[in-house]
Design brief:
Elements (H helix, E strand, L loop, with lengths): L4 E4 L5 H11 L10 E6 L4 E9 L4 E8 L8 H8 L1 H6 L2 E6 L3 H5 L3 E3 L7 H12 L4 E6 L2
Parallel strand pairs: 4-5
Antiparallel strand pairs: 1-2, 2-3, 3-4, 5-7, 6-7
Pfam families: Acetyltransf_7 (PF13508)
Protein name: GNAT family N-acetyltransferase
Keywords: Transferase
Length: 141
């Protein structure tokens, strides 16, 4: 694999990211009001992450690494590549419990629910009611 480039997705390429999600993470779907970062080589998108914007914070969501490229450290590379996005405003995420250590390795810390902004707390509770085992986390540079 050639060296990856990490950058925000250009608006014209928006349909490509939804094809990527449809292929490897059908529950994920990018929205035009999100900031989307990608890691790509010369031929295709290899990984991506979306940031849903709120007034004073953002929610990292929909991180996806191509299945054939998993376990190679690309998640950490992607998050390092979008560092400016992560520090722009406070950044939260809801990590699947089995991925908590992965996010900890990328400078996210687990939070008690009481430290989440109300809109995120409501969302987290809704996701958990649907059976998802999630850990609330915040980026800590």
């Amino acid at each position: 694999m050639s060296k990856l480039r990490f950058h925000p997705l250009e608006p014209l390429r928006f349909p490509l990211i939804n094809r990527f999600y449809k292929s490897y993470y059908p529950a994920g779907k990018a929205k035009k009001d999100e900031v989307i970062w990608v890691g790509e080589d010369n031929s295709s998108i290899i990984c991506c992450v979306r940031f849903k914007q709120f007034d004073n914070y953002q929610l990292l969501t929909g991180m996806l690494v191509h299945p054939e490229q998993r376990g190679m450290g690309l998640t950490k590379q992607l998050l390092t590549g979008c560092y400016q996005q992560l520090i722009e405003t406070p950044c939260y995420c809801f990590a699947f419990a089995h991925l908590e250590t992965l996010y900890q390795g990328a400078n996210f810390i687990a939070l008690p629910e009481s430290e989440l902004p109300e809109p995120l707390l409501s969302r987290l509770r809704r996701y958990r009611q649907s059976g998802k085992k999630l850990v609330a986390m915040r980026y800590q540079p």
